[in-house]
Amino acid sequence: MASSRLATRAARPVLSKTLFSTFAAPKSFGAAAIAIATRRYNSSKTSSSSSSSSSSSSSGPKTPPPEPKSSSSLGLIIATAAVAGGAYWAYSSYSAPSSEERLAAFAEHATKDDYQQVYNAIAKRIQDVDDEPDEGSFAPALVRLAWHASGTWDRTSHTGGSGFGTMRFEKESTTGANAGLDRAKIFLEPISKQFPWISHGDLFTLGGVTAIQELGGPTIKWRGGRIDGAEDKIPPDGRLPDASKGADHIRSLFENRMGFTEGETVALIGAHALGRCHTKYSGYDGPWTFSPTYFTNDFFKLLEDEKWHVRKWDGPKQYQDDKTKSLMMLPADYSLVQDKEFKKWVHRYATDNDFFFQEFARAFSTLLELGVNFKPNTPYFEFTRLDDQ
Ligand code: HEM
User: Fold this and answer.
1) Do residues 41 and 142 both lie within one domain?
2) Average pLDDT in the chain
3) Residues 210, 220: contact at Cβ < 8 Å?
4) Ribosomal protein: is it a keyword of this entry (predicted)?
5) What is the C-alpha separation between 71 and 74, in angstroms, rounded?
6) The CATH number of the domain where 284 resides is what?
7) Are 313 and 284 in contact (CB under 8 A)?
8) CA–CA–CA angle 272, 276, 280 (5° rounding)
């Protein structure tokens, strides 16, 4: 049922009628050009008359206004020619908006329904695409892409974050910390083609929202407004967390540099309920929970309840659960129970799933907005899960 509705929605034109007509009808460009021409002509008249009036009011010798040079009909012809010339000049110097400008203008006015269509297309693709047999889903990689696209924010220098969609550049996405995220970007490419008006930053972050919700997580409030900025907006490499480090490192990045509270920091790392580590990408190996395609507070429960030991293997230092030896914790994850203050939050989230969902939803929404210059009054949207439509 959901898919038949989706087909109906997909059949709808991508650009809304009102906006499209503003840009598509050549007549309106002509009208706009004439309007601009008239305005420019009038304003040049006003400025020349005001400059002549100012010169006439200056203290120098007063020049009498020039006599009319000819008959009134000649004057009319000259005036008409001037208006026509001005209009032609304005028309010929008026450049129609490029297709990028039109798309950006559309994005600026996109409605909840427009974004819900993008959400649906991502959600449908998460269900349909299963060419990652070991993973069960692309969704965890989408969550990671959204987080890495945003988590470079530095509140002191006001650089990084998702505002300019710089993760679309290889220079950023191929750094060591982003290894493996190419597959999430490739996964989103058809969506980007289907909805060319959505900016990359909006798409990457909406992908994370969709993934969390479709994997059973909380509803995430989201706003559109990121733009495709130039390469000079790419943040310096080295801003994402180092998994081999502990509590001090996590605090300095999440609390000091990005501005999260302690509770928000711990909640965000709870996203490790999803997905897994891949030796080919990070060097680490294995999932954190038994249900890596279902969003729960299990990361905290397992961290608190299980006994963990350093795994004996050739790879980097990581922890392994004693009981099944099939789960893992990064040194950074494990520091959440080694640090007295972090540990209190782990306990709260492990024992109260609703509270975890509430805190995660808030913090994730904030994370996705780091470094974004929203226009005033940009509305928040909450999207409906595919199964609830
Ligand atoms: C101390 C902070 C963090 C560290 C050190 C860290 C480190 C890592 C590492 C090493 C991986 C494995 C990558 C791979 O081998 O494919 C990973 C995966 C993942 N991370 Fe984090 N992460 C942190 C915080 C976060 C946050 C805040 C989120 C989201 C809000 C997040 C979401 C994920 C997800 C969903 C995966 C699984 C990706 C997949 O299955 O492909 N992480 N993280």
Assistant:
1) no
2) 81
3) no
4) no
5) 5
6) 1.10.420.10
7) no
8) 135
Per the structure block, which two tokens stand in for 151?
């988590």
pLDDT tens for residues 320-349? 999 999 999 999 999 999 999 999 999 999
Cα dihedral 86, 87, 89, 90 in deg (nearest 10)? 110
Closest atom, ligand 1, to C-alpha of 279: 15
Report residues whose beta carbon is within 6 angstroms of any ligand 1 atom. 140-141, 143-144, 147, 180, 241, 243, 250, 268-269, 271-272, 274-278, 281-282, 284, 330, 332, 364
Where residue 234 sits, what CATH number does that domain have? 1.10.520.10
* Interval 210-260: pLDDT, tens: 999 999 999 999 999 999 999 999 999 999 999 999 999 999 999 999 999
State how many domains the chain has: 3
Domain containing residue 323: 247-362
The answer to whether the beta carbons of residues 115 and 195 sit under 8 Å apart is: no
107 and 234, same structural domain? yes
Nearest to 239 by CA among 170, 154, 132, 345: 154
Identify residue 275 by its one-letter amino acid code. Answer: G
Residue with CA at minimum distance from ligand 1 atom 2: 241
- pLDDT at residue 44 tops 70: no
Q: Sorting pLDDT into bands at 50, 70 and 90, what band is 135?
A: confident
